[in-house]
Amino acid sequence: MDISVEQIKELRALTGAGVLDCRKALAASNGDIKKAVEWLKEKGMAIAAKKAGREAKEGIIGVYVHHDKKTAAMLELNCETDFVARTDEFQNLARELAMHVVAAKPMYVSPDEIPAEEIEATKEKFAKEAREAGKPENVVERIVEGKMAKYYEEVCLLEQPFVRDPDVKVKDLIKENIARLGENIVVRRFARFELGG
Fold it and tell me: Both 63 and 99 in a single domain?
């Protein structure tokens, strides 16, 4: 099948992928742009998974101050090389994530950071609520699992829906950038400031 330059340009504009990757994706999906986007996403997630174990010691501090000057956030975003840390794309990601912290008010980077006592207390609270609502014991465990997933979305940055695109979780946004930039990217820590808070 012949792939036109216009198709490649359109796919590049949508995904930011390289010319060769766009050509391969379009060939694999018989010229269907939507299928090609999905093909590239799957490929990107596979690349991101391979890079996840690599050490990320370089990076920048992303800063966002809300327009009212009453809330702000600082976020340490790490990557593997200083070269990637200096790119506009990486710096924009750091700023976008800091802006997300201001808007969504996460308390932890990931569920791994939540103290074990807090997790247990939250599970107990959800189980007690389910039992008090008269749910059978075999259903209580599933209810607790579902509520814990929702709890993680509320308090953990990586589990939250990204404020600019609620269909994408923050961790998936980071994986997309890992695939695009070709390096492991890690949110190390963040701090949120609120006037009088």
Answer: yes
